[in-house]
Protein backbone atom coordinates (compact mmCIF):
# COMPACT_ATOMS: atom_id res chain seq x y z
CA UNK A 1 0.00 0.00 0.00
CA UNK A 2 2.77 2.37 1.03
CA UNK A 3 4.72 1.48 -2.14
CA UNK A 4 1.72 2.34 -4.35
CA UNK A 5 1.27 5.70 -2.66
CA UNK A 6 4.94 6.51 -3.11
CA UNK A 7 4.82 5.58 -6.80
CA UNK A 8 1.73 7.75 -7.33
CA UNK A 9 3.41 10.64 -5.51
CA UNK A 10 6.56 10.20 -7.62
CA UNK A 11 4.56 10.17 -10.86
CA UNK A 12 2.73 13.34 -9.83
CA UNK A 13 5.98 15.09 -9.00
CA UNK A 14 7.53 14.07 -12.34
CA UNK A 15 4.48 15.49 -14.17
CA UNK A 16 4.65 18.74 -12.20
CA UNK A 17 8.38 19.10 -12.94
CA UNK A 18 8.07 18.25 -16.64
CA UNK A 19 9.09 21.20 -18.87
CA UNK A 20 7.45 19.58 -21.88
CA UNK A 21 4.10 19.34 -20.10
CA UNK A 22 4.37 22.93 -18.91
CA UNK A 23 5.19 24.14 -22.42
CA UNK A 24 2.21 22.22 -23.85
CA UNK A 25 -0.14 23.63 -21.21
CA UNK A 26 1.00 27.19 -21.88
CA UNK A 27 0.78 27.02 -25.66
CA UNK A 28 -2.48 25.03 -25.79
CA UNK A 29 -4.81 28.08 -25.34
CA UNK A 30 -3.09 29.88 -28.23
CA UNK A 31 -3.43 26.83 -30.49
CA UNK A 32 -7.09 26.36 -29.57
CA UNK A 33 -7.73 30.07 -30.18
CA UNK A 34 -6.08 30.02 -33.62
CA UNK A 35 -7.82 26.81 -34.69
CA UNK A 36 -11.25 27.95 -33.47
CA UNK A 37 -11.20 31.52 -34.77
CA UNK A 38 -9.00 31.17 -37.86
CA UNK A 39 -8.62 27.53 -38.87
CA UNK A 40 -12.30 26.54 -38.76
CA UNK A 41 -13.57 29.63 -40.69
CA UNK A 42 -10.79 29.19 -43.25
CA UNK A 43 -11.66 25.54 -43.93
CA UNK A 44 -15.36 26.48 -44.00
CA UNK A 45 -14.71 29.25 -46.55
CA UNK A 46 -12.89 26.77 -48.82
CA UNK A 47 -15.84 24.40 -48.55
CA UNK A 48 -18.32 27.22 -49.30
CA UNK A 49 -16.29 28.48 -52.28
CA UNK A 50 -16.61 25.07 -53.93
CA UNK A 51 -20.37 24.94 -53.44
CA UNK A 52 -23.50 26.88 -54.35
CA UNK A 53 -24.60 27.45 -50.78
CA UNK A 54 -26.78 30.50 -50.05
CA UNK A 55 -28.13 32.17 -46.94
CA UNK A 56 -31.62 30.97 -47.90
CA UNK A 57 -31.01 27.27 -47.28
CA UNK A 58 -28.80 24.60 -45.76
CA UNK A 59 -28.02 22.67 -48.95
CA UNK A 60 -24.51 23.12 -50.37
CA UNK A 61 -24.36 21.44 -53.80
CA UNK A 62 -20.77 20.92 -54.97
CA UNK A 63 -19.95 23.06 -58.05
CA UNK A 64 -16.16 22.71 -58.16
CA UNK A 65 -14.33 25.80 -59.42
CA UNK A 66 -17.45 27.31 -61.05
CA UNK A 67 -17.52 30.23 -58.59
CA UNK A 68 -13.90 31.13 -59.37
CA UNK A 69 -14.44 30.84 -63.14
CA UNK A 70 -17.49 33.12 -62.90
CA UNK A 71 -15.51 35.70 -60.95
CA UNK A 72 -12.59 35.82 -63.39
CA UNK A 73 -14.95 36.80 -66.24
CA UNK A 74 -16.92 39.32 -64.15
CA UNK A 75 -16.04 43.00 -64.97
CA UNK A 76 -16.99 44.07 -61.44
CA UNK A 77 -14.55 41.58 -59.94
CA UNK A 78 -11.80 42.67 -62.35
CA UNK A 79 -12.36 46.30 -61.33
CA UNK A 80 -12.38 45.22 -57.68
CA UNK A 81 -9.08 43.39 -58.05
CA UNK A 82 -7.54 46.46 -59.73
CA UNK A 83 -8.86 48.73 -56.96
CA UNK A 84 -7.43 46.47 -54.25
CA UNK A 85 -3.93 46.51 -55.71
CA UNK A 86 -4.18 50.24 -56.53
CA UNK A 87 -5.22 51.10 -52.98
CA UNK A 88 -2.55 48.87 -51.41
CA UNK A 89 0.24 49.96 -53.77
CA UNK A 90 -0.42 53.72 -53.58
CA UNK A 91 -0.85 53.58 -49.81
CA UNK A 92 2.39 51.66 -49.45
CA UNK A 93 4.33 54.08 -51.66
CA UNK A 94 3.07 57.26 -49.99
CA UNK A 95 3.37 55.84 -46.46
CA UNK A 96 6.98 54.80 -47.03
CA UNK A 97 7.98 58.20 -48.43
CA UNK A 98 6.09 60.36 -45.91
CA UNK A 99 6.86 58.00 -43.01
CA UNK A 100 10.60 58.23 -43.72
CA UNK A 101 10.44 62.04 -43.93
CA UNK A 102 8.46 62.31 -40.69
CA UNK A 103 10.79 59.86 -38.92
CA UNK A 104 13.83 61.86 -40.08
CA UNK A 105 12.27 64.99 -38.58
CA UNK A 106 11.14 63.34 -35.34
CA UNK A 107 14.56 61.85 -34.61
CA UNK A 108 15.95 65.37 -34.24
CA UNK A 109 15.61 67.46 -31.08
CA UNK A 110 13.33 70.51 -31.17
CA UNK A 111 10.88 72.31 -28.90
CA UNK A 112 7.39 70.80 -28.84
CA UNK A 113 8.57 67.42 -30.12
CA UNK A 114 6.20 65.52 -27.79
CA UNK A 115 3.21 67.49 -29.18
CA UNK A 116 4.20 66.75 -32.78
CA UNK A 117 4.56 63.05 -31.95
CA UNK A 118 1.12 63.08 -30.29
CA UNK A 119 -0.52 64.73 -33.30
CA UNK A 120 1.14 62.29 -35.72
CA UNK A 121 0.01 59.26 -33.70
CA UNK A 122 -3.53 60.60 -33.18
CA UNK A 123 -5.06 59.08 -36.36
CA UNK A 124 -3.82 55.62 -35.31
CA UNK A 125 -5.27 55.86 -31.81
CA UNK A 126 -8.74 57.02 -32.91
CA UNK A 127 -11.38 54.35 -33.64
CA UNK A 128 -11.38 53.60 -37.37
CA UNK A 129 -15.13 53.92 -37.85
CA UNK A 130 -15.27 57.24 -35.96
CA UNK A 131 -12.40 58.80 -37.89
CA UNK A 132 -13.77 57.63 -41.24
CA UNK A 133 -17.18 59.12 -40.42
CA UNK A 134 -15.35 62.39 -39.83
CA UNK A 135 -13.83 62.14 -43.31
CA UNK A 136 -17.31 61.36 -44.68
CA UNK A 137 -18.36 64.82 -43.51
CA UNK A 138 -15.19 66.33 -44.98
CA UNK A 139 -16.17 64.87 -48.37
CA UNK A 140 -19.84 65.89 -48.13
CA UNK A 141 -21.27 66.80 -51.54
CA UNK A 142 -22.77 70.10 -50.27
CA UNK A 143 -21.17 71.13 -46.96
CA UNK A 144 -17.61 69.89 -47.53
CA UNK A 145 -15.13 72.21 -45.74
CA UNK A 146 -12.52 71.22 -48.34
CA UNK A 147 -14.74 72.55 -51.14
CA UNK A 148 -15.44 75.71 -49.09
CA UNK A 149 -11.69 76.29 -48.69
CA UNK A 150 -11.12 75.80 -52.42
CA UNK A 151 -13.95 78.22 -53.25
CA UNK A 152 -12.55 80.83 -50.84
CA UNK A 153 -9.12 80.39 -52.44
CA UNK A 154 -10.63 81.03 -55.89
CA UNK A 155 -9.77 77.56 -57.17
CA UNK A 156 -13.38 76.36 -57.51
CA UNK A 157 -16.88 77.61 -58.20
CA UNK A 158 -16.54 80.28 -60.88
CA UNK A 159 -15.92 80.33 -64.64
CA UNK A 160 -12.24 79.85 -65.40
CA UNK A 161 -11.45 78.34 -61.99
CA UNK A 162 -8.58 75.84 -61.92
CA UNK A 163 -10.79 73.02 -60.54
CA UNK A 164 -13.92 73.88 -62.54
CA UNK A 165 -16.98 76.13 -62.35
CA UNK A 166 -19.05 73.73 -60.19
CA UNK A 167 -19.53 74.74 -56.56
CA UNK A 168 -18.48 71.29 -55.28
CA UNK A 169 -16.11 68.55 -56.42
CA UNK A 170 -18.32 65.63 -55.28
CA UNK A 171 -15.39 63.73 -53.80
CA UNK A 172 -17.26 60.44 -53.37
CA UNK A 173 -19.31 60.45 -56.55
CA UNK A 174 -17.49 61.90 -59.54
CA UNK A 175 -14.90 60.32 -61.86
CA UNK A 176 -11.73 59.08 -60.17
CA UNK A 177 -12.19 61.21 -57.04
CA UNK A 178 -13.89 58.46 -54.96
CA UNK A 179 -10.88 56.13 -55.28
CA UNK A 180 -8.46 59.03 -54.71
CA UNK A 181 -10.41 59.98 -51.57
CA UNK A 182 -10.22 56.41 -50.26
CA UNK A 183 -6.44 56.33 -50.85
CA UNK A 184 -6.06 59.69 -49.08
CA UNK A 185 -7.94 58.54 -45.97
CA UNK A 186 -6.11 55.20 -45.90
CA UNK A 187 -2.73 56.97 -46.05
CA UNK A 188 -3.84 59.32 -43.25
CA UNK A 189 -4.84 56.32 -41.13
CA UNK A 190 -1.76 54.11 -41.68
CA UNK A 191 0.94 56.82 -41.84
CA UNK A 192 1.43 56.90 -38.01
CA UNK A 193 2.20 53.17 -37.96
CA UNK A 194 4.70 53.51 -40.82
CA UNK A 195 6.34 56.49 -39.12
CA UNK A 196 6.74 54.65 -35.82
CA UNK A 197 8.25 51.59 -37.53
CA UNK A 198 10.75 53.69 -39.51
CA UNK A 199 11.55 55.79 -36.42
CA UNK A 200 12.33 52.63 -34.44
CA UNK A 201 14.64 51.53 -37.25
CA UNK A 202 16.46 54.88 -37.29
CA UNK A 203 16.99 54.71 -33.53
CA UNK A 204 18.46 51.20 -33.88
CA UNK A 205 21.34 52.38 -36.14
CA UNK A 206 24.53 52.58 -34.02
CA UNK A 207 25.65 56.15 -33.42
CA UNK A 208 29.26 55.11 -33.98
CA UNK A 209 28.54 54.42 -37.65
CA UNK A 210 27.03 57.89 -38.19
CA UNK A 211 29.82 59.58 -36.25
CA UNK A 212 32.52 57.75 -38.23
CA UNK A 213 30.83 58.78 -41.50
CA UNK A 214 30.79 62.41 -40.33
CA UNK A 215 34.48 62.23 -39.43
CA UNK A 216 35.19 60.84 -42.90
CA UNK A 217 33.42 63.85 -44.40
CA UNK A 218 30.30 62.10 -45.73
CA UNK A 219 27.45 64.50 -46.52
CA UNK A 220 23.77 64.02 -45.67
CA UNK A 221 22.73 62.32 -48.91
CA UNK A 222 25.79 60.05 -48.93
CA UNK A 223 25.03 58.94 -45.36
CA UNK A 224 21.35 58.51 -46.32
CA UNK A 225 21.92 56.33 -49.41
CA UNK A 226 25.06 54.45 -48.34
CA UNK A 227 24.43 53.95 -44.61
CA UNK A 228 20.91 54.73 -43.40
CA UNK A 229 18.75 53.23 -46.16
CA UNK A 230 20.79 49.99 -46.58
CA UNK A 231 20.69 49.39 -42.81
CA UNK A 232 16.97 50.19 -42.78
CA UNK A 233 15.94 47.64 -45.44
CA UNK A 234 14.73 44.98 -42.93
CA UNK A 235 12.67 47.68 -41.17
CA UNK A 236 11.21 48.80 -44.49
CA UNK A 237 10.27 45.16 -45.10
CA UNK A 238 8.27 45.11 -41.86
CA UNK A 239 6.58 48.39 -42.81
CA UNK A 240 5.73 47.01 -46.27
CA UNK A 241 4.26 43.82 -44.80
CA UNK A 242 2.11 45.58 -42.19
CA UNK A 243 0.88 48.27 -44.58
CA UNK A 244 -0.02 45.76 -47.29
CA UNK A 245 -1.78 43.33 -44.94
CA UNK A 246 -3.73 46.07 -43.11
CA UNK A 247 -4.86 47.66 -46.38
CA UNK A 248 -5.63 44.40 -48.15
CA UNK A 249 -7.80 43.02 -45.34
CA UNK A 250 -9.67 46.18 -44.28
CA UNK A 251 -13.26 46.81 -45.35
CA UNK A 252 -14.39 49.52 -42.90
CA UNK A 253 -12.92 52.37 -44.92
CA UNK A 254 -14.64 51.60 -48.23
CA UNK A 255 -17.84 50.42 -46.53
CA UNK A 256 -18.34 53.72 -44.70
CA UNK A 257 -17.14 56.10 -47.41
CA UNK A 258 -18.68 54.72 -50.60
CA UNK A 259 -20.11 51.22 -49.96
CA UNK A 260 -18.37 50.25 -53.19
CA UNK A 261 -20.10 52.93 -55.28
CA UNK A 262 -20.74 54.74 -57.45
CA UNK A 263 -21.75 51.84 -59.74
CA UNK A 264 -19.40 49.33 -57.99
CA UNK A 265 -16.38 51.39 -59.08
CA UNK A 266 -14.64 51.52 -55.66
CA UNK A 267 -15.16 47.98 -54.37
CA UNK A 268 -12.16 46.18 -52.89
CA UNK A 269 -12.04 42.42 -52.31
CA UNK A 270 -13.24 42.65 -48.71
CA UNK A 271 -16.31 44.77 -49.46
CA UNK A 272 -17.22 42.77 -52.57
CA UNK A 273 -17.00 39.54 -50.55
CA UNK A 274 -19.24 41.06 -47.85
CA UNK A 275 -21.85 42.46 -50.24
CA UNK A 276 -21.89 39.28 -52.36
CA UNK A 277 -21.80 36.70 -49.59
CA UNK A 278 -23.62 38.33 -46.67
CA UNK A 279 -25.94 40.99 -48.08
CA UNK A 280 -26.42 39.31 -51.47
CA UNK A 281 -26.94 35.88 -49.91
CA UNK A 282 -24.54 34.01 -52.23
CA UNK A 283 -22.17 32.54 -49.64
CA UNK A 284 -20.35 30.43 -52.23
CA UNK A 285 -19.37 33.36 -54.46
CA UNK A 286 -18.63 35.56 -51.45
CA UNK A 287 -16.22 32.95 -50.07
CA UNK A 288 -14.57 32.64 -53.50
CA UNK A 289 -14.00 36.42 -53.60
CA UNK A 290 -12.48 36.37 -50.12
CA UNK A 291 -10.16 33.47 -50.93
CA UNK A 292 -8.50 35.48 -53.72
CA UNK A 293 -6.69 37.39 -50.96
CA UNK A 294 -5.12 34.30 -49.43
CA UNK A 295 -2.48 33.38 -52.06
CA UNK A 296 -1.49 37.02 -52.56
CA UNK A 297 -0.96 37.71 -48.86
CA UNK A 298 0.77 34.37 -48.32
CA UNK A 299 3.20 34.94 -51.20
CA UNK A 300 3.90 38.54 -50.15
CA UNK A 301 4.52 37.58 -46.52
CA UNK A 302 6.85 34.74 -47.53
CA UNK A 303 8.86 36.95 -49.92
CA UNK A 304 9.22 39.85 -47.47
CA UNK A 305 10.18 37.60 -44.54
CA UNK A 306 12.68 35.74 -46.72
CA UNK A 307 14.29 39.02 -47.84
CA UNK A 308 14.46 40.25 -44.25
CA UNK A 309 16.10 37.01 -43.12
CA UNK A 310 18.70 37.15 -45.91
CA UNK A 311 19.43 40.79 -45.13
CA UNK A 312 19.92 40.02 -41.44
CA UNK A 313 22.32 37.20 -42.26
Automatic annotation (TrEMBL):
Return the Gene3D superfamilies for the record: MetI-like (1.10.3720.10)
UniProt membrane topology term: Multi-pass membrane protein
Q: Which GO biological process annotations does it have?
A: transmembrane transport
An annotated GO cellular component of this protein is: plasma membrane
Recorded hits in SUPFAM superfamilies, A to Z, give: MetI-like (SSF161098)
Signal peptide start and end residues: none
Entry's InterPro entries?
A: MetI-like (IPR000515), MetI-like_sf (IPR035906)
Residues of the ABC transmembrane type-1 domain: 81-304
Residue ranges spanning the membrane: these are 21-48, 85-107, 114-138, 179-202, 232-257, 287-308
Q: Where in the cell is it found?
A: Cell membrane
Highest rank taxon of the organism: Bacteria
Q: What is this protein called?
A: Maltose/maltodextrin ABC transporter, permease protein MalF
